[in-house]
Amino acid sequence: MNEKMPRTPFSTPLSGSAKEAELRLKNIFSGPKKRPPALFLALVFAVCLLCGNLVSCRVKETGPQAEVWVDYLNTDEMPWEDIAKLQLEEYPGVTFRWTPYGVTAADETGEITLLIYGMPAWNVFLCDLNGDGKRELCATVSFGSGITDNHIEVYDYAAGQWYILWDRTEYDYALSLEDGRLQVSQWEYQSGWPCQGEPISVGGLALNSADGLEGTWFVAQAAESFYNPAASAAEPDAAARAAYTKVLEALFFHRVLPDGENGEAIFDDMSENEFALADVDGDGREELVLLTRPVVYAGYRGYVLDYDADAGAVRIQFDGFPSLTFYSNGALAEDDSHAQGIWTDDFWPHSLYRYLPETDSYELAGHVSAWEKSVSDINEGNLPPFPTEKDKSGAGILYYIHPVSSYEYLNTLENRVNMAVDQSVYLAWLEPILEGSQPLELEYLPLTEENISQIKQE
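^ thats the sequence. predicted structure below, dont judge the formating
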């Protein structure tokens, strides 16, 4: 399992370096301190009977005992390079591993399974929520960039079942430990950006149903996990693997990049380059994704390489900055190398590409950048006031969508204001490109002689 996940237009990097995530995901949360009045809870209960996620009864709140594994929800710093490992007696031979990017499990055979994914995963608690005598892993995670939400994921390792408490664009949720029991806090979506101040409701955490439980309960529903650790369902092709091996060996031994034009690139450490084999465009064949990071930052490059069986050669299907996110419908997001300005803090500008199966190629759908209200608020005198009248959704962020790099259009203050669009416009534009698809997780390997040899033997 690679510790670096690719970044997405919904995410803070999935495959980029931790330093970018650290700049964009800090101090997002401040945890709940007290409960709201009982009358307000009753009002929330009445509303939620209609939408289905909150089940409320009177009397008292109880629940199984829980314990913390990791918790950075209310700390000043997220340890982006840290790894925490854990073995539990109820799961012999299994090693659980937490990084800021999620939780994985490795069994005795060495097979790695992605259980929980976060950007970051702020905390993880252990609690036997279903009463089977085996503790589940319960986490608060962030998802998104610019339209970040915060929700709860639970993984029942004994049953191999994933649960979510997630109302994207309606509510944010966070877990904490109160008197030895799990507490769920609920906020209006992005109120206080995104989970600061008093929550609108607090309660316990249950799985699938809160029938028979006393008190206020939030129900995480069993779901099909969209995190796909085996992104490549394609059978390895011997000819393609041999051709991809030659590409990797040319870079490792001779510093020759796939385009063949930059054979003199300087690398301090070849293992800082990464590669993955996966069917990233959904055509049923493996592609080679290669992320190169030479000494000169301007030379950073990412490639999607495809094997052309008719020609017996490898061709470049896509190349760009090596912060790439692949989606289950074949779409591709490429982050900008720089944010190009001080208009955003959390949202990272990026380009989105559609996959065209008829030509087995990518087509640029557009470039997206943004303007965040919080940035204007703390930069009075340097930035103009945020145009709240254009923020119809009340999200505290406006977007710019252009056919190519937005910076060619946003060269005047007038354009900054006039070209900004509400979040609803952005989401409407995004939907037909991503079609509800989710990011693929690729298993990137450092470019080493051993790892190159490994793909020959698979």
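The chain has a mean pLDDT of 81.
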